[in-house]
Amino acid sequence: MKIHAYLMFDGQCEAAFNHYAECLGGELELMRFGDSPEADNVPVEFHQRVIHVCLTVGDQLLMASDSMPGMPYEGIKGCSISLQVENVPEAERLYTALSAGGTVQMELQQTFWATRFAMFTDRFGVSWMINCDVDSQQG
């Protein structure tokens, strides 16, 4: 079994996932409401919204979609995407790229449990944690 996160956006899904693919690498697969077999049942103004996107990084998946027409959107809350990284330079790179334009709750720093740790909400409203237990670049 694998457990993967699925995020919901309100029209920003494509922009968010293009950014995540740029930051995290991997392969992006995206389908719009207008490309689905149900396109005739979706208002035209929603056709460019994302019905499903999947970012595959190695054997890990991050998935999402935009909210459905007529459904209230309350934002993404109650969880964080946590990235476990191998070394400090990678933690710094991801922190800089993903937190840009967002709100930082905890700057990237050493803690009693990690070589580096940070918490922030990105510019798309997604909460992230970056954790580097031990710097693999240190001998």
Automatic annotation (TrEMBL):
Domain PhnB-like residue range list: 2-130
UniProt xrefs under SUPFAM superfamilies: Glyoxalase/Bleomycin resistance protein/Dihydroxybiphenyl dioxygenase
InterPro entries: Glyas_Bleomycin-R_OHBP_Dase, PhnB-like
The protein's name: VOC family protein
Organism the protein comes from: Pseudomonas xionganensis
